[in-house]
Amino acid sequence: MPDGTNGRLETGGRRQQAGDGRPEAGGTSSLQSAACSLTVVYAVTPDQKYRRMAAGSIYTAVRHNPGVRVRVVEVEGGDYPPGIKPAALADVTAASVLFLDADTVVRGSLGELLACDADFSARVATAWLAGGFLSRRRWAALCSHFGLPPVQGFNSGAFLCRGQVARSLAQSWPRWMEAIRHAGVSDPQLQPAKSPWWMLDQYALALAVAEIGCRVRLWSRAEHSFGWKGEVPGLIHHTGARRWEDPLR
C-alpha cells in the first residue's frame, strides 16, 4: 500500500494485517473525536487491482478523518472470494468497526455514523429494494428452512458494528455461507437468485445478524450511496468495481 494511508502491510502467515498506528488528530471537533474511536477494516486479495482500490479508499477515509484507525487484512486468493470479508473481522479488538469494500469513497466525517446506539448499521442491499433480482418467495422459503422469518438483507460492502458483533460475525457469517450454499445445492427452490453462490455473502450476513439478535439501524442513501444506481454521492459512496475511479490519480 502507498505511504500515508495510516497503515503498513505486515507480512507473515496466510493473512497480512495493517498496523493500527494512528497519527495525531487534525482537529478538535466532536465528529473528529468520534471518528478517532473507530477502526475502518478492509479486506483485499493479493490482486493488485483490489490493493490499489483499497489504497484509494483508505486515502479518502484518512483525508476526512485524521486519526482514524485503519486495518487491512489480506487473504490469499486470486479473485474476490466471499469468505474474505468475515476473515477480515477476526481478532478485531476495537469498540466500533466500520467495514468498507475497496470500491468505496469516504466523503466526510465518519463520526456522523456513530451518533446512535445500534449494534449494527447498514443499508438495505439492492437485491431487497423494489425491483431487485431477489426472489421474495425463495428468500422466504430459505429463511423458513432455517426456522427464521423473512429477514432484512444488507449491502455487505459497508457496515458499522460494535466490536463484539464484529467478532461474532467473523464466526457466524462464514457458517451461514456454507449452510446457504448447501441448502441451495440440495434444493434449487431454496436458491434466492441465480445460484447458491450469487450474492452469497449478503444472504449470509442477513441471517448472521438475525441470529446474533442485533439492534439494527438502516442507513439512507445519504449515508451509503450506490454508484451503480446513479445515486447522488453520500457520506460513503460505493462506486462498484466496474465504475471505480482512482482517487490517487
Describe, in plain words, how this protein is organized in 3D.
- With 249 residues, the protein is an alpha/beta fold.
- The chain has two domains: 1-115 and 219-249, no CATH class; 127-152 and 168-215, no CATH class.
- It contains six helices and ten strands.
- It has helices at residues 30-36, 48-64, 84-89, 136-145, 163-186, 200-212, and strands at 16-17, 38-44, 69-74, 96-100, 104-106, 120-124, 154-162, 216-218, 224-226, 236-238.
- It has a seven-stranded mixed sheet with strand order 1-3-2-4-7-6-8, with helices on both faces. Strands 5-10-9 form a three-stranded mixed sheet.
- Helix 5 crosses helix 6.
- The longest helix is centred in the C-terminal third of the chain and has 24 residues, at 163-186.
- Mean pLDDT is 81; it is low at 1-28.
Average per-residue pLDDT, rounded, comes to 81
Structural class given helices, strands, pairing? alpha/beta
Helix content: 25-40%
Low-confidence stretches: 1-28
| H/E topology pattern | EHEHEHEEEHEHHEEE
Please give the largest β-sheet: 7 strands, mixed
Taking Cα atoms only, what radius of gyration do you get, to the nearest Å?
A: 17 Å
**Record field, number of beta strands:** 10
Q: Which strand order does the major sheet show?
A: 1-3-2-4-7-6-8
Number of domains: 2
How many helices? The count is 6
Q: Strand percentage, roughly?
A: 15-25%
* Global shape: globular
Distance between the termini: 14 Å
